[in-house]
Amino acid sequence: MTPRLDATSIITSDLAASLAFYRRLGLDIPEGAESAPHVEVTLPGGQRLLWDTEEVIASFDPDWRRPAGGGERVALAFACDSPQEVDAVYAELVDAGYTGHLEPWDAVWGQRYAVVLDPDGCGVSLFADASPAAK
User: Fold this and answer.
1) What is the pTM of this model?
2) What is the pLDDT of residue 97?
3) What is the DSSP letter of 67?
4) How far are the Cα atoms of 53, 87, 106, 117, 127 from residue 102, in angstroms, in the given order?
5) Given 3-state DSSP classes, what are the helix, strand and coil percentages for the chain, each rounded to the nearest 5?
């Protein structure tokens, strides 16, 4: 049997802020989840996204330390339907007070691409084909 990727985990210092950010990106996170020390949602396709507070991680891994020097805890990428949606989602998040890291641009690899930081400083990429094929 071969192991298969089942989940991605975010270790957060502020669970409520992290969940609010990812709700703005369209994830269906149950209301009231902010009061739990561990949260998980199943994404389309069956993958799971998990959140744990720093305190939960430290409770079973006493040697765990918050990444120093701006090291990322995880990086996620959200596909958008169009270059215009990349721009709009980036603007909406920045207007809501989140930190824009890389403003939308047309990347050399053929995508409209941008990066915004979640409340824990993790880079979240927004991308779409730079010139989507006509459907």
Assistant:
1) 0.78
2) 97
3) P
4) 27, 11, 11, 9, 12
5) 25, 30, 45
